[in-house]
């Protein structure tokens, strides 16, 4: 399957501290991917490297097979909304739409205008006078109007109210279904991500903890509840990701390599949220997806 974004041992350092380290991942075409991790995990750094705003200090990042830092031509295929949704504050939304139409090859003016109308946002007001959430909506409308092949969104819904959030994610999904755009969006709102994403990248402390298709990851993990567990191997379990114990009972989130049939264990399916929380809690033990054998 074709990969839109690929990184190989990608690293970015600020002074002596690595903001992103040994990051190897693939994002296949057509996916809507969640980029998840605690504050300071390296999410924005990864997005900035992918859009060529930062130059790697180690390894490589390729978007559509090219280095975004050295090849500005591919930027026409990438839409990016940064975390603080920077816009020229003295410009009106209408002026920004006109500017977009002059600067972009595949610009969809009607889409941008319709979204603003749908949202009840005046196209004639300087965007600096809009609320933070309204400005985010304008930035997102402009990003969709670019009709990019890859859309990178850094916490796009953080400043939106719950209804606006739901509406935006629906609009995003509609646009993706129509155009086949690959999306990578960072967010802390796991329930939102669970609704819209079919791929996930979990970062912690500058390193990739988990990456893969949501279906594959959910299929290859289980929660086990049973007698207090020591180190003894359990048939069907490739690795224990997270364990919690009482005096007599253990609850394990495990990666499986076959069915767990030992009757001592009650086996439950996991949700994406269970998985993300388990891998985030286990952030001290990073590994590449290759090491886990999780399909990319
Ligand atoms: N310009 C900078 N100068 C120095 N350190 C930086 C800079 N930008 C980011 N960092 C550091 O790099 C690390 C990763 O930051 P990054 O912004 O990528 O995290 P994040 O996962 O996007 O966090 P958040 O969820 O808070 O937005 C952090 O430790 C941060 O302090």
UniProtKB/TrEMBL annotation:
CDD domains, A to Z: ABC_DR_subfamily_A
Cited SMART domains: AAA
Pfam family, one: ABC_tran
UniProt entry keywords in alphabetical sequence: ATP-binding, Nucleotide-binding, Transport
Domain ABC transporter: 5-230
Gene Ontology terms for molecular function: ATP binding; ATP hydrolysis activity
PANTHER family: ABC TRANSPORTER ATP-BINDING PROTEIN ALBC-RELATED (PTHR42939:SF1)
Listed name of the protein: ABC-2 type transport system ATP-binding protein
């Amino acid at each position: 399957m074709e990969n839109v974004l690929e990184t190989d041992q990608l690293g970015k350092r600020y002074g002596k501290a690595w903001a992103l380290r040994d990051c190897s991942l693939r994002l296949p075409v057509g996916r809507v991917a969640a980029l998840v991790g605690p504050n300071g995990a390296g999410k924005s750094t990864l997005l900035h490297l992918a859009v060529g705003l930062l130059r790697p200090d180690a390894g490589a990042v390729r978007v559509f097979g090219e280095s975004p830092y050295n090849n500005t031509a591919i930027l026409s295929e990438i839409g990016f909304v940064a975390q603080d949704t920077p816009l020229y504050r003295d410009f009106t939304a209408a002026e920004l739409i006109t500017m977009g139409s002059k600067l972009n090859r595949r610009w969809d003016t009607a889409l941008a205008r319709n979204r603003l109308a749908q949202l009840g946002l005046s196209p004639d007001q300087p965007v600096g006078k809009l609320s933070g959430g309204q400005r985010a909506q304008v930035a997102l409308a402009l990003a969709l109007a670019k009709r990019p092949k890859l859309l990178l969104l850094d916490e796009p819904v953080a400043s939106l109210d719950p209804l606006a959030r739901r509406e935006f994610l629906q609009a995003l999904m509609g646009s993706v279904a129509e155009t086949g755009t690959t999306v990578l969006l960072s967010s802390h709102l796991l329930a939102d991500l669970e609704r819209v994403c079919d791929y996930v990248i979990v970062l912690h402390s500058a390193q990739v903890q988990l990456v893969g298709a949501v279906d594959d990851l959910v299929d290859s993990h289980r929660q086990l509840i049973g007698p207090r567990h020591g180190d003894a191997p359990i048939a069907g379990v490739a690795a224990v990701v997270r364990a919690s114990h009482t005096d007599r009972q253990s609850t394990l989130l495990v990666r499986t390599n076959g069915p767990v049939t030992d009757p001592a264990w009650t086996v439950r399916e996991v949700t994406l949220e269970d998985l993300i929380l388990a891998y985030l809690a286990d952030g001290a033990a990073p590994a590449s997806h290759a090491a886990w054998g999780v399909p990319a």
